[in-house]
Amino acid sequence: MNHKNHFDPHKELAKFSEFLKRKSLKITSQRLLVAEKIFSIGEHFTVEDLIDLLKDRKDEISRATIYRTVSLLVESGQLKEHDFGKNSKYYEFSPSSKEHHDHIVCLDCGKIEEFQNSYIEQIQTDIANKLNYDLIEHSLILYGKCKILKEKGHCEKRNQTVDSHD
Q: What is the pTM of this model?
């Protein structure tokens, strides 16, 4: 689910800057560069993926700054953190214009796909109501094995995952 066309990166940077001001934190060019890169990724990523994407700027942006900026973006609500049962946390940029969605994760290649289903959403709301809860937030993650590897004997995503993290 690509969200690049559904948000204004300048508004998102301004929102992050306002958050930093409210927290009495400095608005540095390094933090803004990291945030801008995150806003442009368009898919789920790990901090290591982000560090790889910023490797041409490693002289000006430290690993600590990248980790801290990710934490700040999670705190601001602009970035969602996911635990997909792997060794790393995954993140996704979450502009306010992005609709709620759930995830399915391939246990073979690590591919993460987003989906929306109004029937599933209604069931979750019905369960919360039946148990006398006001549903505030929820997350549904399905795990399976995509059929690409099984049918073709190879998977481009698996090769990318293996190559990029060795």
A: 0.70
